Amino acid sequence: MAGRQAAIAHAALKRVQAELGERQLDALLVAQPENRRYLSGYSAEDNGIQESAGFLLIPESGRPRLLTDSRFTLQAEAEAPEYGIYMYRRGLVEALEELLPEMGIRQLGFEADYCLYALWLRLQALAKRLKLRLTATSGLVESLRVVKTPEELELVRAASALNDRVFQTAFAQVQTGMSERELARLIEGTMLDLGAERPSFDTIVAFGENAAKPHAVPGGRRLVAGETVLIDMGLVLDGYCSDMSRTFVLGEPDAQYLERHRLVRAAQKAGMAAIRAGVSGSEVDRAARQVLAAGGYGEAFGHGLGHGVGLAVHEAPRLSPSGRETLEAGMVVTVEPGLYLADWGGIRLENMVIVTEAGCELLNRDSTWLDL
Amino acid sequence: MAGRQAAIAHAALKRVQAELGERQLDALLVAQPENRRYLSGYSAEDNGIQESAGFLLIPESGRPRLLTDSRFTLQAEAEAPEYGIYMYRRGLVEALEELLPEMGIRQLGFEADYCLYALWLRLQALAKRLKLRLTATSGLVESLRVVKTPEELELVRAASALNDRVFQTAFAQVQTGMSERELARLIEGTMLDLGAERPSFDTIVAFGENAAKPHAVPGGRRLVAGETVLIDMGLVLDGYCSDMSRTFVLGEPDAQYLERHRLVRAAQKAGMAAIRAGVSGSEVDRAARQVLAAGGYGEAFGHGLGHGVGLAVHEAPRLSPSGRETLEAGMVVTVEPGLYLADWGGIRLENMVIVTEAGCELLNRDSTWLDL
Predict the structure, then answer these.
(1) Quick one: which of A177, A176, A205 has its CA closest to A190?
(2) Signal peptide location in the record (chains A, B) (predicted)?
(3) I need a labelling partner for A309 at 20 to 30 A (CA). Which of A252, A254, B69, B281 fits?
(4) B91 contacts in A (CB within 8 Å)?
(5) Residue B174, Cα to own-chain centre: how many angstroms?
(6) CB under 8 Å to B188, separation ≥6 — which residues?
């Protein structure tokens, strides 16, 4: 995978450098963790924004730098061969004070959406001392991440295929008497066993009425035969995320469950059928939402139909009533209609697809409990 | 624990309100996750700074508010009874636009160390519209968190005692042939089994030469009899963190290992003996560092002796050559001297203590492989 990630980083770096040229910026300081990984392949993780594992300093031309501390320099050298690794002792600002003049940078862009106010104050003071211009940018790298390259799509396919395998392995072990928390731990343990870096979000497992909460936190409730099991799970593989949901019943579902499940599945199919390059996120959302509304469950579907997935598990574009972005080939989105009824429970079915010119490519091979 | 946490939050809230009075601020906006939990008991976790689980708006007097979205309102109501819960749909700024005039707030403080530049721009615009003054604060709540109340110390004791139990449970299962990653997963699984919320940091397990890296990431290396095992682990219980390290050998240690281990242990004892209210962090560091230097390993100890622990696993005060803070009774610190030799491996022994007027209270009851 290292070669593929290097190719992704190389192409991304060239695009950012071209963008810097257009904006007349000499360099961009990158702090946002997924942007950093995208542009370099460097995979160290931050312990929150206050304990960063490093920054990229990308000049409009010439060799980019990766600035980090002694804990991470070996990893940075191994993972980001295209970057000059700069080890700081007292932190970012001190490093910039040395590097910016050396690299001849006079117009520095920074990420407004991932720069603490306290750091901005220090950057401002530095800019004054070095007589350079500091420019806030927003979404510069994020906007490049939305449409994936063929290499990235391979990694997304692999992450989603692994998610399918993890689900199927865990599904085979679901038993009555298990708690939600135990099942969530089984799933997350299986992810690691099968080679995932980590879950892409905290696994959701909800039994019975708990499934009425779209973001249920797994608790001590134990599974009884005949009740709903809702699982929403994702993992990270080579930096790329997967995300899928399945809902099923251990034992025989009753007629009401079957009817509702089939309705959610029909909505999912309608959403997928509406996806193709050139269509807006809100149109796709509407196609699925109409099916639920026609079935009498319009009010029971309170969230958007889907979201982009890539290095982040939630990214652009949004499939929702307010989703204005136009889909393009190479975007990756979830299609996850749901139905939530407070006293009864909920059903959510979620697949991931790649947007193509003519339609979409379904990434999930798993079809457990989809068509009943 | 809920009663104890409510008492902690209540006392903390009163102290912050008094501080706001002194600073002539009408209110403080709190975003930093540990500060938020400290002041409210609300335990939801952010998915990074870009996906916050909520904010506190604390007026200098009167009822404080907790601002969050629909996913978290039930949890917020249950956990933060002293707060008025405000559910926002379009986010923080919109909520503030309604609440600030309603609450008569004209001087608003915010956390410079946990506010994104992009949010600050929007807060500035809001301040202009509402004709209020926006004031950057730094460390206002953090500084209150450094000295723990008796209720907090009870929670720290409990977190550390549970860490001891987890270590002992895992230690009993260590076998040759296990990989570092397997042992780390065994430890983290045991934490959850025994009731921890989560690890307080990614568990470090390093075998043999890998122990020479203070922040080693557990890998596929399998344990061989006679080689060093270094474990650094911590957990979160009721919001409070623990942190401990042990180093041992499966089988018979050789004379060189024994000599080095005893030296690190002697440095740890010297550090602990130096701790008491009124002493500076650098003095404590020096007491331990001298022992290692006298034994010929001054260069092999590259990090500080310890750090504060509380709601965050790394917080003030620092025990290090540059640690200027003066210790006070009720602070909680780690004492973790180490010795790292690139071709050989490393030894680190870490306990947690509470600073008292006369000395310190050792929190770790575990004495596995300390005195050899």
Answers:
(1) A205
(2) none
(3) B69
(4) none
(5) 27
(6) B199, B203
State how far the Cα of A332 lies from the Cα of A194, in Å rounded to an integer. 23
Using the Cβ of A61 and the Cβ atoms of chain B, whether some distance falls under 8 Å is answered with no
Cα(B9)–Cα(A351) distance, integer angstroms: 42
Question: How many CA within 13 A on the CB side of residue A350?
Answer: 29
**Which residues of B fall within a CB distance of 8 Å from A187?**
none
Average pLDDT over residues B141-160: 97
Distance between CA atoms of B188 and B185, rounded to whole angstroms? Answer: 5
A192 and B214 in contact by Cβ < 8 A? Answer: no
The Cα–Cα gap between A298 and A287 comes to: 12
List, for residues B27-84, the tens digit of each pLDDT value: 999 999 999 999 999 999 998 999 999 999 999 999 999 999 988 988 999 999 999 9
In degrees to the nearest 10, what's the CA dihedral of A33, A39, A40, A42?
20
Taking each continuous run of H as one helix and of E as one strand, the counts in chain B are 10, 19
Two tokens, residue B117: 């530049």
Alpha-carbon gap, residue A147 to A317, rounded angstroms: 10
Q: Which residue has the tokens 């002796």?
A: B305
Give the whole-angstrom CA distance, residue A361 versus residue B252: 58
pLDDT at res. B4: 86
Look at phi and psi of residue A237 and say left if phi exceeds 0, alpha if psi is from -120 to 50, else beta.
Answer: beta
Alpha-carbon distance of A357 to A144, in angstroms, equals 19
- Could you tell me which of B220, B235, B213 has the C-alpha nearest to residue B169? B235
Domains of chain A: 2-145 (3.40.350.10), 150-362 (3.90.230.10)
Question: Considering CB atoms only, which of A47, A120, A192 is closest to B117?
Answer: A120
At residue A162 the predicted structure's pLDDT band, cuts being 50, 70 and 90, is very high
Sign of the C-alpha dihedral computed for residues B277, B281, B282 and B285 taken in this order = positive
C-alpha to C-alpha distance for B203 and B219, rounded to whole angstroms:
12
Average confidence score pLDDT of chain B: 96
**Are residues B201 and A118, on separate chains, in Cβ contact within 8 Å?**
no
DSSP string across A161-183: HHHHHHHHHHHTT--TT-BHHHH
Is residue A9 within 8 A of residue A41, CB to CB? The reply is: yes
- The answer for residues whose C-beta is within 8 angstroms of residue B173's C-beta and 6 or more apart is B186
Amino acid at B264: V
Give the pLDDT of residue B315. Answer: 96
How far, in Å, are A121, B114, B262 from residue A96 at the CA level? 14, 21, 42
The whole-angstrom separation of Cα B91 and Cα B111 is 18
> Residues B135, B27: contact at Cβ < 8 Å?
no
Q: Is pLDDT of A2 > 80?
A: no
- Residue B201 one-letter amino acid: F
Residue B117, pLDDT score: 98
Q: What angle do CA A170, A216, B78 make, to 5 degrees?
A: 145
A335 in Cβ contact with A306 (< 8 Å): yes
Distance (Å) from the C-alpha of residue A30 to the closest C-alpha of chain B? 14
Nearest to B71 among A112, A114, A215 (CB): A215
pLDDT tens-place string over residues B225-278: 999 999 999 999 999 999 999 999 998 899 999 999 999 999 999 999 999 999
CA distance linking residue B207 with residue B222, whole number of Å: 8
B74, B117, B183, B213: best to mutate for the A interface, most A CBs within 10 A: B117
Largest alpha-carbon pair distance within chain A? 73
CB A228 within 8 A of CB A347: yes
Chain A CB within 8 Å of residue B50 CB? yes
